[in-house]
Design a protein that fits this description.
The complex is a heterotrimer of chains A (about 325), B (about 500) and C (about 130). In chain A, strands 1, 2, 3, 4, 5, 6, 7, 8, 9 and 10 form a 10-stranded mixed β-sheet that branches. Chain A is an alpha/beta fold and about 325 residues long. In chain A, β5, α7 and β6 form a beta-alpha-beta unit. In chain A, α3 crosses α10 and α7 packs across α12. Chain C folds into 2 domains: about 45 residues; about 70 residues, no CATH class. Chain C starts with a helix and ends in a 5-residue tail after the last helix. The chains are: A alpha/beta (about 325), B mainly alpha (about 500), C mainly alpha (about 130). Chains B and C meet through α8, α10, α18, α19 and α20 of B and α1, α2, α3 and α4 of C.
Chain lengths: ~325, ~500, ~130
């Protein structure tokens, strides 16, 4: 063969090899199933939303999740152990806001918010103030009125202490100038059961409860910027003059030392999951709002949230 | 409605139910692995199935798991799941006596009856029962927890005072970790594992199983043996005869189990305990309870399997889980895209009814599976030499503990508690009150503080605790159960009698 | 004897709970007080002679104590030698402690074989069947 042809052939095969090789090096992750650790009880909302992510994850990467649970201390047990887990990209952990901001504020819980490396924040569940269907409070005004006349008399349930619902209750009471009594429960179902049984008069929870319980529960208002499409009759707090548009957010963490490119890849995959039609449908039907905060925007986003929650922390008495 | 029964009887579903029961029983029988864990671990397998089939499998695993706990309870004096704690009271003494095969047969049949009754109640009276369950508020749960503790304190072998001390010790153990209310960290010594508290199953294995193992190496006598040659047989007929003599016990215990199971957050442990105590109180042979009385096993096992059906009452009617495995199953439903909550019956009645019938089938399947396993379990178990039994049990306990949270520290906690339990056992303290203290601690504390908060908010503190109708009923039971040991035999002697 | 231990425990809990918030402290305090009360009553009754003291110790004690050490060592060895390695050693150790009669070398062989099979089977079940990371 003539030398120039040899060079061309070799060159062509080299280029071919590189182009074939390069994407495969990129597409290597994930090569096996990824362990997804949930710091809450199986069957809870954090578990369910994570499990809903699996089918689209499988579609995109061909691999699945292996779920594990590390429960305790409202999630702190899992989060405090995050950075001791293998950092090869095959271990990820779910997390919730405002938990990871409020918890360390309150004392030594085994981790600090900055320790947690966020890859994606994918979901927001807006707060709602719920009362049982047979409650005398038909509107938000009724509720506020009664509270003004009888400070501390209204019993409102919520999950945990210094948690998302507690933060919501604190902020709302502050903005509305009232005082209600917060009764902590260990889980949403426990507080919903108490609500339905009229053991407590109201509940600070999430739209998901309203979706689930349907007619058994009346949502007095939702903490969103605009009314939720599933509930056009329920006003937002904003409409009533109360600045409360917030909820619990869920996202995914990796151990700190996970390689940079894997973090980016995970972030991209999560973004794609959030666009998966089936996933979107199931989440929205459940009352969840999908949001997208990818890896590179996470730090800034968290800073903004932290500032908001500083105020709440002060109201809760966590920050002096 | 019957159409759904046929739906549930398809060969595929039957096979799933069968496999589910076998898997559940195997996992539930191993100390360290609970029914909850069985359901949690095997749930992902069902995601690719049709919702109804997935549910049938999960229900079968759950039902089998609760039943499986009796094997470890009878053979090793270790409840395989917390629901089987009361089964150890009479199951193990029977095994020690050589009647282990009989005990297992009784447990099997009682579990089947209990399971069926639980499903029947689910099918027939779910909505009204759910309403009643909702009437239980924090105060009622608190008193219920106290009732459980006083029952176990007065029932366990040994004196009432020791039982109370044990229960208090258990309660203190349950306080380790972040407080239910208030969130402050208690007794954690800065250890991140302890922040999560001491897991119930860790305490269960440690306090029940390790002392048994340590005792095994104390003497060279075999662990269990047959009482007489003639007892090597199937003993099925004998068991059936016993069962007929326990008709009232069966029905009552199952009803208790279904009802308590329907209370969200109250589970098999309390149910079986209450059923056991009621069985003892109304039996003519009450003095024999605790020493190997068949009625005790029947009561406990019937009740705990009835909680499966009962637990689904709030789960299906309201979307509120009655027991932890229900929560997992609810989660599985959500992943299948089925909206849970009050709309479940109306929107997906086909799936729901097929599932309920699947539960029924699973209960019935336990009979052949259980009898088959039971026949060989006791015989096989007796044949294992101590040199293999001891390390084998240790292996299971260490593995099982580790499997809960993949945490080696918990294994150490388990071993440490085991040593403590052994020392206490030699001093005459039985493990049951301690473990129940751990199990009920959270419920008791939560109920207490919540009731206090609500009572203060409505300026009605005393009325809150003592004025509500259901609470008064429970309070009466508490007083009765405390009074019973005092009234029954010689006053002082019973109070401080050391254990034998 | 154990009652004294309980009193000490109760006292310690009361001491610790001083630093807790109101809600966090109330129950532990109540419970430890009940415990101390029960323990005191028990001691009194024993002294008065009404109660019998605990049953005498039966059997030899060196075996259980050794077994405890083996158990601890077992748990400690797992992170070092991996699950199968650590458990094999632990299993064999426990086996020896539980060996009451002398064995022929055939018996030894048989027991070792069972040890290996059981350990590996358990590992397989948990690691693959149940997806537990070991």
């Amino acid at each position: 063969m003539k030398t120039s042809n040899v060079i061309k052939t070799v060159g062509a095969s080299l280029v071919l090899g590189l182009t074939l090789g390069a994407p495969s090096a990129q597409a290597e992750y994930p090569e096996k199933d990824v362990t997804y650790i949930i710091p809450f009880n199986p069957g809870g909302e954090s578990d369910v939303t994570a499990r809903l992510q699996e089918p689209p994850f499988k579609e995109i990467t061909g691999k699945g999740f292996v779920f594990q649970y590390k429960t305790g201390a409202g999630g702190a047990t899992g989060w405090s152990q995050l950075n001791q887990l293998p950092a090869d990209g095959y271990t990820i952990m779910g997390f919730n806001l405002p938990h990871v901001i409020l918890q360390p504020m309150g004392g030594n819980v085994g981790y600090k918010t900055e320790d947690l490396e966020i890859v994606y924040i994918f979901q927001l569940t807006p707060y709602s103030l719920n009362v049982p269907a047979n409650s005398p409070y038909k509107t938000l005004e009724d509720y506020i009125d009664h509270a003004k006349k009888n400070p501390g008399a209204i019993t409102v349930g919520g999950v945990g202490t210094n948690s998302a619902p507690h933060a919501a209750q604190t902020k709302f009471d502050h903005e509305a100038g009232i005082k209600t009594s917060y009764i902590p429960f260990t889980g949403t179902s426990a507080s919903t059961a108490a609500l339905l049984g009229n053991q407590i008069q109201a509940q600070w929870s999430f739209i998901t409860v309203g979706v689930e319980q349907g007619d058994n529960v009346r949502m007095l208002a939702v903490a969103m910027d605009e009314r939720h499409p599933l509930f056009p009759d329920v006003p937002t707090f904003k409409e009533k003059g109360i600045e409360l548009s917030d909820g619990a957010r869920r996202g995914v963490l990796v151990p700190k030392d996970t390689p940079e490119d894997i973090k980016k890849k995970l972030s991209d995959i999560m973004a794609q999951i959030n666009k998966n039609e089936d996933f979107v449908k199931k989440m929205e039907e459940g009352g969840y709002v999908l949001i997208d905060v990818p890896y590179d925007e996470a730090d800034e986003y968290m800073e903004g949230l932290s500032e908001d929650y500083q105020e709440v922390g002060r109201l809760l008495g966590l920050v002096k | 409605m019957l159409g759904y029964l046929f739906e549930a009887l398809t060969p595929f579903n039957l096979m799933l139910a069968f496999m589910g029961v076998v898997a559940g029983v195997t996992i539930g029988a191993m100390p360290g692995l609970t029914a909850t864990m069985a359901v949690a671990v095997l749930t992902p397998l069902t995601f690719t199935m049709e919702p109804a089939s997935a549910l049938i499998m999960l229900a079968a695993i759950y039902m089998g798991g609760i039943y499986g706990g009796c094997f470890a309870a009878v053979l090793l004096n270790t409840p395989g799941t917390p629901s089987s704690i009361a089964t150890t009271f009479d199951g193990y003494p029977m095994a020690k006596r050589g009647d282990g095969a009989l005990a297992l047969s009784l447990a099997t049949m009682a579990s089947v009856v209990g399971g069926v009754v639980g499903v029947a109640m689910l099918l027939l009276v779910a909505p009204p029962l759910a309403k009643v369950a909702l009437a239980f508020g924090p105060v009622e749960y608190f008193w219920l927890a106290v009732l459980g503790l006083t029952l176990v304190a007065s029932l366990s072998e040994g004196s009432l005072l020791k039982g109370i001390m044990g229960a208090c010790f258990g309660l203190l153990i349950s306080f380790v970790g972040s407080a239910v209310i208030g969130g402050d960290l208690r007794f954690t010594f800065g250890n991140p594992t302890l922040t999560g508290g001491i897991n119930i199953v860790v305490a269960l294995i440690g306090l029940f199983c390790i002392p048994v193992v340590l005792d095994l190496v104390t003497t060279p006598d075999p662990h269990l043996e047959f009482s007489e040659d003639k007892h090597r047989g199937f003993r099925l007929m004998e068991a059936v005869r016993q069962m007929f003599g326990q008709k009232l016990n069966l029905v009552r215990s199952s009803a208790i189990g279904a009802f308590v199971g329907a209370l969200p957050a109250a589970g098999g442990a309390i149910a079986s305990l209450i059923a056991y105590s009621e069985a003892r109180r109304s039996s003519k042979r009450s003095a024999h309870f605790g020493k190997g009385e068949p009625g005790g096993i029947v009561a406990s096992e019937a009740a705990n399997n009835a909680t499966v059906g009962g637990g689904f009452i709030p789960t299906l009617v309201l979307g509120i889980p009655g027991t932890p495995p229900d929560a997992i199953i609810l989660g599985a439903l959500l992943v299948h895209g089925i909206r849970i909550g009050p709309s479940l019956f109306t929107e997906h009645s086909a799936i729901v009814y097929t599932f309920i019938f699947g539960l029924l089938i699973a209960s019935l399947l336990m009979l052949p599976i259980g009898l088959f396993l039971g026949r060989y379990a006791f015989r096989g178990f007796v044949a294992i030499p101590k040199a293999l039994l001891v390390p084998g049990i240790l292996l299971m306990t260490i593995l099982g503990t580790y499997a809960i949270n993949n945490n080696l520290t918990e294994v150490f906690i388990m071993l440490a508690l085991g040593v403590v339990g052994w020392v206490l056992a030699r001093a005459g303290f039985s493990p049951a009150p301690i473990v129940l203290g751990v199990v009920l601690g959270q419920i008791a504390e939560q109920g207490f503080v919540q009731a206090w908060l609500i009572g203060t908010a409505s300026d009605n503190l005393l009325g809150m605790y003592f004025g509500r109708p259901i609470s008064l009923v429970i309070l009466t039971l508490i007083v009765l159960s405390l009074g019973y040991p005092l009234l029954s035999s010689r006053l002082k002697g019973k109070l401080v009698q050391g254990s034998d | 004897m154990a009652a004294l231990g309980f009193i000490a425990l109760g006292a310690w809990v009361l001491y610790e709970s001083r630093t807790y918030t109101e809600f966090g402290a109330v129950f532990p305090r109540a419970v430890s007080m009940v415990m101390i009360l029960a323990a005191v009553v028990w001691i009194l009754l024993v002294m008065v002679g009404v109660g019998r003291s605990a049953p005498g110790e039966r059997g030899v004690l060196w075996r259980p104590l050794t077994l405890m050490v083996v158990g601890a060592a077992w748990a400690l060895l797992i992170p070092e030698l991996g699950f199968v390695g650590g458990s094999l050693i632990g299993f064999l150790g426990a086996m020896v402690v539980a060996k009451f009669h002398s064995w022929s070398w055939l018996s030894w062989l048989g027991h070792m074989a069972v040890a290996v099979i059981v350990t590996v089977a358990a590992y397989a079940l948990f690691a693959w069947g149940l997806n537990v990371p070991l």
